[in-house]
Amino acid sequence: VVAMLGLEAAAPGECELTRLLQDKLQYEMRLQFMKHYFPIDYTVQVQYEEVLRPSNITRLRNGTVSEMALRYLWFHVSSQAVLRIHEVLPEKHPSWRYTQELCRLFDALGEEYSKYQQTDVEPVVADLVKLVHSAGAESRRKAVRPKALLDNCIKVMRMLYGAPCEWKAL
């Protein structure tokens, strides 16, 4: 079934790290650290491309983008989103240590993706990754709640890693 869907296997390191991320991104933790510990209606300014929703993944899959490229895109977008949240927090904020742990997990996952180059993925994904990391995209910013960024992160992660990593139903 997996072969019929064209899902490429994820590396064992990817599966283990995303499983750890899944544990850290449990709903209760996202609610506590990204909503309850923030002022009401608090938002973080992110680039338009830094908001990756399941519908974006579905659209790219229908455009025949490989699963490896989608996971590469998810990594870059999600790690930037977590970094954006972490950067706005003072060190004494109750969510600072939580976001620091998420950053460490993404750094470890980055080691898994360090072997990929932007030239190894489809041009549409390479262009999106370039935009995510470009500093000059100030005009393409939008305000997003921190919890919404992490909600999208885990939803897309489950789409991309659930089957290849053989996760149980969540």
TrEMBL record:
A Gene Ontology cellular-component term: extracellular space
GO MF entries: macrophage colony-stimulating factor receptor binding
GO terms under biological process: positive regulation of cell population proliferation; positive regulation of macrophage differentiation; positive regulation of monocyte differentiation
Superkingdom of this protein's organism: Eukaryota
Protein name: IL34 protein
